Amino acid sequence: MAWTKKFLRVNLTDGTVASEDLNMDWADQYIGQRGLATRYLVDEIDPKCDPLGPDNKLIMTTGPLTGTMASTGGRYSVVTKSPLTGCVACSNSGGFIGAEMKMAGWDMIIFEGKSPNPVYLHIENDNAQLLSAEQLWGKSAWDTDKIIHATHNDPQTRIACVGRSAEQGCMYAAVINDLHRAAGRSGVGTVMASKNLKAVAIRGTKGVAGIKDPARFMTAVNEAKQVLADNEVTGVGLPTFGTQVLMNVINEVGAMPTRNMREVQFEGAHKISAEAMAEPREADGKPNLTTNAGCFGCTIACGRISTIAPGHFSIENKPQYMANSGGLEYEAAWALGSDTGVDDLDALTYANFVCNEDGMDPISFGATVAAAMEMFEAGVIDTSNTDGLEFKFGSAEALCKAAEMVATGDGFGKDLGLGSKRLCEKYGRPELSMTVKGQEFPAYDPRGIQGMGLTYATSNRGACHLRSYTVASEILGVPVKTDPLSTEGKADLVKAFQDATAAVDSTGLCVFTTFAWTLENFAPQLDAACDGEWTPEKLAEAGERIWNMERDFNNRAGMTAADDTLPERFFKEEANSGPAQGKTSGLKEMLPEYYQVRGWNADGSPTDETRSRLSLP
Amino acid sequence: MQRSLHIDPGKCTGCLQCEMACSFENEGAFNPSKSRIKVFTFHDEGRFVPYTCTQCSEAWCLEACPTDAIVINMATGAKEVKDDLCVGCKVCTIACPFGTINYSQDTGKVIKCDLCGGDPACATACPTQAITYIDADATGLDRMRDWAGKTDNAASA
Predict the structure, then answer these.
(1) pTM (2 decimals)?
(2) Which of A39, A306, A445, B74 has the smallest number of CB atoms closer than 10 Å to its CB?
(3) What homologous superfamily does CATH list for A6-203?
(4) Whether B17 contacts chain A with CB within 8 A
């Protein structure tokens, strides 16, 4: 079965917690996690509702393979309507809490309404109750984790919570679990805090049983694990270097967005790369990177565990940052580093620690700081706006202070917590915001990797690399090499990646496996574990259905084809160095073709034929 | 030849594949809370350490058991709990200095590592060879080889 077939419905307004049966017809069509939870969201909320009002719902959800021995089977997602974008939000996280939810006997938790007072949900197998979080409100995610563990006297409890940034209304607040894993993007933490829900603490000892064909499942799992181990990226690159393996590669191909995406190569990349993290430093002879770490069940283990150099200015008299914690991944290193022009590895690690400690998405945070720096240099804002800080590109001090201020919502931190779009609009320079549908760009320049332009423009959660990671094909040659500077065939490529990823995000497994696995590797694992028959074709179709359902929700929320675009900069300003020099984004060539391969009308809505072919709700 | 579980914490990533393999082998469910091997995370130090029964030669659990429910598997050397004899008195859990034999609320008996009858599932599942099952008389071989590799042949030539 793999699903527990039960979920919790928590009404925060009334303070009630109830068990409900999972809709297994929907599970067959939408798999689990991203797909299934979005199906519930679409069914239960008005797409035009206020994302931060009581009518929005927040769903924490696992996939059918979460909590099993399938490699990377620890994923969970937070699904809601995003305050940052007004679109559907689905933020995926690893760590251990997803598996714990499953071990406690729950596929999913739907939170609705708004609690009159701060609360947290405590789950011990079948027993789930809302407890007062008065003593936790105003605490960081790290302190919240500590206090809840002490309160319940159980070190094996797994905790997801929001930090102070979410309480302060930061629009890109994350839900942090297991101290440094994050359902990071689109402000899902902001929604959680808006409901006065501080944390979810889970202890599950029931385990995941009822695998349909255990012997066949273990064979499929072991074969798939071997494929990961034998692959150059998942077997060597990611465990050794983490996602930071990309820093030098992307810089060389001229697709490393730099200084708010004005440039496409960063001269300081080698100082903040995976290689730099492994280099012994002067302060204590140790490298930044202590070790790699795996999330639940993961045989790749790309996670970074790092320290900040003793004596670094950022941690003076701050003992809580002197131990090991979650280190830089590529997206964070890019946003906090290249995009702000800061090449101080320790400053980046510190800002990353603060993002984890108080639950900010480091991509949106770094990109918002970058936009502020461009406005500062252009004289749009000055030290009277920034609490006296010289907000210049390359200032490690400004970066570290900015992180502290957003974490607590103090001073200029309130402005920075708006996100890049609202910040630039506030100061009258909307064109300086590097966002799509209000969400900040990730670490690939759409001039140097053309497919990513189409990816960002059409992503259902605003600019995002994880909705269709065509970098795999355009740069790494997975599954086939395509030309990053060409727009040809990118519509089909983006659609294929979007559909496959939507399916993968719904299984309970990690999208990073797709450097080595195709749907051909997922299907046998699902088929052996789950009710029903699961083929690669069925997964691809479910992925396409999920994508169209999300799109449909966004359209009903008020998005139109006009929102499928990029900031002017990518059409007007040519890449100024590297292999992409002279290029702008060819989005306008790709988009009509994309609508066509999607089976959509010219206004970006699914045609009636597409709707009926996919049995859209 | 008997073999021993050999644990190298430096290779562990904390993924818990071993705990799932153990619980699946012994309980038929993926359930780390029922695993006989546990991985401990020392977060601030950035260390992960798998820990389980070392199968003591003079096993304190076995000596302490009033019903002789813990017996030696002569083929593997494992100290195994006989469920039909165990009365759940928990004296063994007090006697064991390492905490690696524990009571199970579900069965009313104690559970401990039995080396899976000579093919430990944890070692098979471990993706990084942090847990291996090797010659019981040569658990130091890796470390000896490491030190041997540091000798300087040129100096004695």
Answers:
(1) 0.97
(2) B74
(3) Aldehyde ferredoxin oxidoreductase, N-terminal domain (3.60.9.10)
(4) yes
